[in-house]
Each structure stands twice: as C-alpha cells, then as structure tokens.
Design a protein that fits this description.
The chain is mainly beta. It has 4 helices and 61 strands. 3% of the residues lie in helices and 40% in strands.
Length: 804
C-alpha cells in the first residue's frame, strides 16, 4: 500500500531559474558553478555539463567517497541546491539550513513554523509531518532562496496555511515583504477557493521573469482539491496570479510530477503535467478545454500577470488511465535544449507517466487529445510502453543526445534521440539492476559533450520504505545495450523519488533519516589529472601518446597502472615529486573492438593513489550495431513494445547504407524510420532504427534486422515471446477485523494479494492507512505480480479498539 505516493502527487512545486539563467538553460547544459533549481535548469534536463571533477575515473578513484554526513532536523524531500556558495537544505519539519558545501558544517539555520501533522487527514503517504516538500529556487538578482512551507498555525490542524518565504542565501534572513500567505481563487475559476488543508505542494519551484511559480495538488486525494499554479513576485512578495487545472469544481488534475519542477522553455511559457481528473474529450490541442486532467499543459503569462492555457496534450485513452490510476502526471515534463529542435518542431518536450509510454511532444502545439490518425495520439513520436515512471527524465547532449529515466520496478533506461523529419526517442540501453518503488530521478554530469565524460547519477531504493538506498553513478553511453555501474554508496533510508544535486565536483543527497550526504574527492587530491582522449585508432593497432600530470603536494610516485585497452610502463623505481612538479607518462591505446573505450590510469604514491580518465575510439571499416541483439522478453498478445538499435559507422570515412531488410511480423520497422537507400553516415555517426513487437498469438518468435553498407553488412538477431490471457487480482482475506483491542495496545492483522490470472498484474494504486492504523510493510505502486505470484503479507496494526 502506498506509504507516500500521494503526498508527492498531492504536494507540488516547481523550480526554475531566473530570467537570466533561463536564457543560458535554453542554450544547453549548466555553465554556472551553483545549482539553483531542481534538475539543474528551467528545462528540467538534469544536465550539469560543467563537472570535470565528476569524470568516470575521478569517481572511481580510491579517495572518492563520503565527504560529510550532516544530521538535520526532519526528512529531506526537497532536492538540495547550491546558491551564492552555500548548500541550502530544507526539511519536512520546516527547517532550512545553510551549510558549507565542502564540509557540511552549519553556517545558519532558520525555523519557519510548526509543520502540519499528516494524520489530520488520515494520510499515510508522508508521515509524520508535511512542511517543506518541494525544491526551493534561488534568484541571483535578489540574493534570496524561495521556499514554500505548510504551517500548522491556524485555529486547529484542519486550518493550516501555505507560505512562500524568501531567505538570504548567505544568512537565512527573511526578505522584506515576505512571507506571503497563499490564498484566494483562480482567475479562470473564481467559484473555487484554495484549501490549504487538502492542497499540497510537491514540484520544485519555478522562477520566471521575476515571479516565483508554485504547483499544487492533493493531499492523499482528499477532497476538495484541484491543481493550482500560483505566482508571487520575487521582489515584492505580492501574489500575482492563481490558475486552476479544473474549473468545474470536480476534484482532480493535481500537479504532482513526483517532485519534478514546473518547466519553462522560454519567456512567458510554463509547462506542467496533471494527474487523475476530468479527462479532456477528443479535441484540438491549441484550444484547451476548461478541465485538464491527465494532460500536459502549456501556460502563457499574460500582460497583466495572469495565466491562461495555450496548448494541451492528453492521451487518446485518458479515460482508461483515470480508471486504472495510471496518472500521466506521475512524471514531470522535460524540455530539450533548443539546439535539438527541428525546423518542423523547434521546441520539443518529453513526458512519461505511470503506463510507461514515452511521449515526444511539440511544445508549441502539444497535440490535443485523439487528434492522430484513427483517433490516436498526435504526438511527434511515442516510445514504449516500458515500466511506469514515478519521476522525471534527464538529458545529455553528447553522442547525438540521450534521454534517461528510471522505470518503477525496472531499470535505468537510455533512449537515443534522433532528429530529422520525425524526431524520435528509441530505447538502446538499460542497467542490469532494477529499481524499487520510490527510487529517484536521474541527473547527468559531464564535461560538456566530451566523449567518455558523462555519468548518470540516481538514487536506488529497494522499495516503498526507502530502505537499503544507494547513491549510484552509471556510464551515460551503453555498451552493447548495457549501462555500466561505475560507483555506488549506501545512504540508509531514501525519501520518495529523490533527486541529487551536483556542484563543483560534489554530489549531494538527503534522506528520510534527515541526513544530508556530500560525496566527492578531497580538495587535497595528490595530482591534477585532467582526462585525456586518444585519436581514433584502428582495431588491433596501437596509438602512443604522452599525458602530463601536476603534483599538488610532495610525495614519492611508486607505480602507475592502467586498465585495458590502455597500457602504461610503470617507473622502475620511486620518483620524487615536489608540489608544482609535472610528470610525463607514455601511454598506449590498443582497441580490440570498435566503439568508445574508457579506462583509468592509476598513480600509486607513498601518500595514496590518484586516478586519471582515458578515452578513445576503436575503428574498423563498415557498420556495427549497438546493442548486438534485441530481446523483447514477454509481451501480452494484443499489446506492443518497442526497442531500438543504433547502426554505427565504425570506420573513419563516410559509409553509405545500401539497403535495410526489416524483420517480418509480429516484428516491424516503420518505413519512415528506416534510413533511406543512399543515406551517408559520417565516421563515428549512428542512425537509430526502432523495432516494434506486436504479437497477435501466443508463441516464441525470432527474426533478423539486416543493414547493408558500402563496406559490409550488419545483422541484428531479434527475439520475443507472446503470452495470452488476462491478469486477475485476488485478496485474501477480503475483510480485516481486529475485534476488541484494549486502548493503548496494538493488534496486527494481514492480507495477501495474488495474481490468479495468466498474464502479469500491475498494482496501480495502494494507499496505506494512518492514525490508529499503520503498516510497516507498505505495498509498492507499480509492483508487478507474475501469474501465480502473491505479495508479501500486508501487515496493518490497529489500536484503541478500532476495527477495519
């Protein structure tokens, strides 16, 4: 059962950057030292492209690890940010801290009122307190960090208040004119009234053109509630606007996004996603209806500061999504950098929800509902379905562009971006490990688009309680379809759907235990070891080079080693180096296969070790494929799944594609996605071919995709299994009766959920009790039970004579 989902679906917020930062964000990765908003920038790409000290070799060095673990007061759901050289951390107990970003020592602390007790609404999603759940945002023009708080300061707990605070990033002092109490009615639905008790604020805050925007949704789906966007002037503290996703008075369409921020891809433009609610009827996208449940929405900021919906997208089967609790808004929208737009679609947006379909949308004309051929979706393209996503994607612009997302009960997935007439996202790689419910959303660090420099950071959790959590880093480019795990560190109990922050060679993550971790390398690293990239080298030949490192202190260098396919000759005797001395090392690169290679050069000294990243590309004439084969696994008859393969020019001169031989049904390749005969691939370039599997009868299937070029042919084996039938959920027992329980004592009962059908069963909604009832074994939303499987017994405790 849910231990916390709706606290996030119901809490919201959205974080972006100031107008100045917005222009930088639209151009590409973060170039500033500070991380001032959720997922790095206003596009919500999660791409921090200025992190040379988070290279693969750097994070695998022996001295890379925990720099500090600071205990704070309250659970840490908001992503940490770094503003004006200060690490800002906010907690559910309405405490905000300014910490030294290198040492984690406290520079200031400010309490912002009593947090609200979640038991007021019998809500077990986020317990015991709800205070600051969304990620703050920093405005460099005012020097203030903006934070939303839910405060138990009314006549009773049923009448709390929501506030926006503005705190000096370096001192914690409140800015004049703040805090601002959030209140009133939306301009597009004056019949509605903002209810502080049942509304929650989860997405990160958005700073756009001098206004801080907040998104709201429900607390545990308790009515009355709606999705609200509220704006407050960052300079005066005056509430400028309120807008609602629903105008009919029906409950729903909350803005939750698993904490992902309200996004913006330009001045006066706000992008968001909603959950269950009144689903739009089929209709064009640029005339949005009044009620916008299960939708992606683009808002415009009008001249008077009010907001209005300009375009929307809602899946053609939005009514069924509502019925199954497959919220589109479980994922936050992510806009692609402008350089990845096309002439037909200059502004692209990625959206994914609980049903696992990945939509690539035109942010200027989102597509409406059921406006595609035969009443399908008018998306630019659709990938999947894969596992559902409770979170938001990340992006890296290297190697043609990749999008990353974490499947609920599934892997970290890499999707290659393809532009052209029909831009696409195609799954080309996954982690071998699967991520439990409540795991986090990814963030990418790199040195720009440099090959071999990028890592994908994500928090792994084993299940709903956040237990056995780890901070993990994966190589950003898959090797034969696999994302390699580069680094992991245990962090105790993770909060739900956390996002890490990265800044100046450090990674920060908060936990359910109220601990903020800082991970990195000491500032006293022995050597300056900038990464080195070799020239392209033919397979089974050798390129020699020299690399130079600089000593940061005095020590004796006793040995040097490398990982294949790189080689180095270690000094025969210790070499004494003083601070500032340089040392030149001959290194060789001998690739045994085509493609990008990464390795590590390790320096051993009498004061420890240091590491250096080595990168290169092996070449051979012709074409190659990544991955080498496609396996669709099990797919239910009547449904579809899509995977992709990258066809790569593995040589050093242009390669011409002469023909493509697609597999036969139930496999298929959309002819519009095939490279046309005569297509030329530059050296090292790739084209992605999506392959679908749509079985109509049970059985095992196999075939081959073949691509022929001017220097040879590459064949990709394809396999898949189709299963027929339906899932069926059985609950035993169907009634839980505690009988008579003495006041102050506890009794425990349990029940089990089984799949007695013939195909996998997905648990789409599960809400834990609170108050006099509680559980220590919540069920995970999105949990999949195979035929014949059953869940662990759900244990619920009751006290004080209550009966279920």
């Amino acid at each position: 059962m849910v231990a916390l989902r709706r606290a996030q679906k119901v809490s919201l917020g959205a974080v972006i950057a100031s107008s100045l930062a917005l222009a930088l964000a639209m151009a590409g990765p973060s170039a500033s030292a500070d991380i001032t908003t959720v997922s790095v920038d206003s596009l919500r790409t999660g791409w921090d492209g200025n992190e040379p000290n988070l290279s693969p070799a750097w994070v695998t060095a022996s001295d890379f690890g925990k720099q500090f673990a600071s205990q704070l007061n309250g659970q840490i759901y908001a992503q940490p940010i770094v503003a004006a050289g200060t690490l800002i951390v906010a907690t559910e107990n309405n405490q905000v801290y300014g910490l030294d970003p290198a040492a984690g020592t406290q520079q200031w602390q400010r309490g912002l009122g009593s947090p609200w007790p979640a038991a007021t609404l019998n809500c077990g999603d986020l317990t015991p307190n709800i205070g600051i759940t969304s990620t703050p945002v920093y405005d460099p023009t005012t020097g203030a960090v903006y934070v939303t708080t839910k405060v138990n300061d009314g006549p009773d707990a049923a009448r709390p208040n929501w506030y926006l605070h503005a705190l000096n990033a370096q001192t914690g002092a409140e800015r004049a004119g703040f805090p601002t109490r959030i209140q009133g009615s939306p301009t597009n639905a004056p019949n509605l009234v903002f209810n502080p008790e049942t509304e929650n604020q989860r997405p990160g805050l958005l700073l756009l053109d001098g206004v801080v925007y907040m998104g709201f949704g429900s607390t545990c789906d308790t009515p009355p509630y709606s999705g609200f966007v509220v704006g407050v002037s960052s300079s005066t503290g005056v509430q400028t606007t309120m807008w609602s996703t629903e105008t009919s008075g029906s409950d729903g369409a909350g803005i939750w996004q698993a904490g992902g921020g309200l996004a913006s891809d330009g001045a006066g433009r706000i992008l968001l996603a909603t959950g269950n609610g009144v689903a739009p009827a089929p209709g064009p996208g640029d005339t949005p209806p009044a009620n916008l449940g299960e939708s992606v929405v683009r808002l415009s900021v009008n001249a008077n500061g009010s907001l209005s919906a300009q375009s929307f997208f809602s899946p053609y089967d939005n009514v069924k999504l509502n019925q199954d609790d497959f919220d589109l808004g479980s994922g936050g929208p992510m806009a692609l950098p402008a350089s990845f737009g096309t002439s037909a679609h200059p502004h692209l947006l990625v959206q994914v929800g609980k049903d696992g379909r990945i939509y690539l949308l035109d942010a200027d004309h989102l597509g409406g509902s059921a406006q595609g051929s035969n009443g399908t979706d008018a998306a630019v393209s659709v990938a999947g379905p894969f596992q559902g996503v409770w979170g938001h994607p990340a992006f890296w612009g290297g190697n043609g562009g990749y999008v990353y997302m974490v499947g609920n009960g599934g892997p970290l997935r890499a999707l290659a971006y393809s532009g052209g007439a029909t831009p696409r996202l195609t799954s080309v790689g996954t982690s071998t490990a699967t991520f439990g419910y409540t795991s986090g959303s990814p963030v990418v660090t790199s040195t720009g688009t440099s090959n071999g420099s990028a890592l994908v950071w994500v928090v792994y959790a084993s299940g709903p309680t956040g237990a056995n959590a780890e901070l993990r880093a994966y190589d950003a480019v898959p090797t034969n379809g696999v994302l390699n795990l580069r680094y992991s560190y245990p962090i105790g109990n993770a909060t739900k759907f956390p996002v890490v922050a990265t800044d100046s060679g450090h990674v920060y993550v908060g936990t359910r235990d109220g601990v903020i971790y800082g991970v990195g390398r000491p500032t006293t690293a022995l050597l300056q070891t900038p990464p080195y990239t070799f020239a392209d080298t033919a397979v089974n030949t050798t390129t020699n080079a020299t690399v130079t490192v600089t000593a940061n202190s005095s020590f004796n260098l006793t040995g040097i080693s490398s990982t294949a396919p790189f080689d180095v000759v270690s000094p025969s005797s210790p070499v004494a180096l003083n601070k500032g001395d340089t040392y030149t090392v001959p290194v060789s690169f001998t690739p045994t296969t085509w493609g990008t290679a990464s390795g590590t050069l390790t320096f051993t000294t009498d004061h420890g070790t240091a590491a250096m990243s080595l990168n290169g590309r092996g070449t051979q004439p012709g074409l190659g494929s990544s991955p080498a084969s496609l396996d669709f696994g099990s797919v239910t008859t009547g449904s579809a799944r899509q995977l992709g393969v990258q066809i790569v020019n593995t040589g050093t001169t242009p390669e011409t594609i002469n023909s493509v031989s697609a597999p036969a049904a139930p496999f298929a390749v959309d002819p519009s996605s095939e490279p046309a005969q005569g297509t030329t691939l530059a050296a090292g370039a790739a084209t992605t071919i999506p392959v679908s599997f749509t079985p109509t009868a049970a059985g095992s299937f196999s075939d081959v995709l073949t691509v022929s070029g001017s220097d040879g042919t590459v064949s990709v084996p394809i396999t898949g299994t189709a299963v027929a039938g339906q899932p069926h959920m059985s609950i035993n027992p169907t009634t839980v009766d505690y009988g008579i329980v003495q006041v102050g004592k506890a009794a425990t009962q349990s029940f089990t959920i089984s799949n007695t059908g013939s195909t996998p069963l997905t648990i789409t909604k599960a809400k834990a009790p609170t108050g006099v009832f509680s559980t220590t074994t919540p069920l995970a939303e999105g949990q999949v039970l195979q035929p014949g499987d059953e869940s662990s017994p759900y244990r619920a405790d009751g006290v004080a004579g209550q009966a279920a």
